[in-house]
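Running low. Invent one:
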Amino acid sequence: MYDVAIIGGGPAGGSAAIYTAKAGKKTIIIDSNQGVTKRAMLNNHYGVAEITGPDLVETGLNQAKKFGAELVETKVTNIRKLEQGFKLQTEDGEFEAKYVILATGFLMDLAEQVGIKTKPGTEPRVKTIFDVDLLGKTNIEGIWAAGTCAGVCVHTIITAGDGAKVAINIISEMNGERYVDHDVLK
């Protein structure tokens, strides 16, 4: 069983995976390769002169994999609550995880069948978002959401930050104390 399953490998999901994997949590990213970032040219991402969306996504996922995250390219079709955690049904098999982070961007198809509450989106072209609290929790204990699907601005710098925030909140809950990850120069 994975500690954390992240559905979506864009900036929010990839960023969340960097933090959870680096914190030693067994992490899987399940990505359906439908993210809008893969069609973007980014000239406004802090710390980077310019980068294509595909390069940003690839770099982020490689960072997550460096810390031990696994990446599976498939689509999640259902999430079912277990006694301990969740079973994620995909087009290619099943995975189990204690926690789930939804980082699905514009894709909300899991909400209705899983029972996650939604509300109207606030961003242009974002009709519906998951209804989350300030930490990123949905109405289903153990399922969290980050990025555009959780109502933050669609810009990659913001969705990546939200993914990190949600991951830190999950790690803190798992560890029973506030988690901080700061590396220092040697």
Q: What stands out?
A: The CA atoms of residues 6 and 183 lie 24 Å apart. The mean pLDDT is 94. The first strand starts at residue 2 and ends at 7.
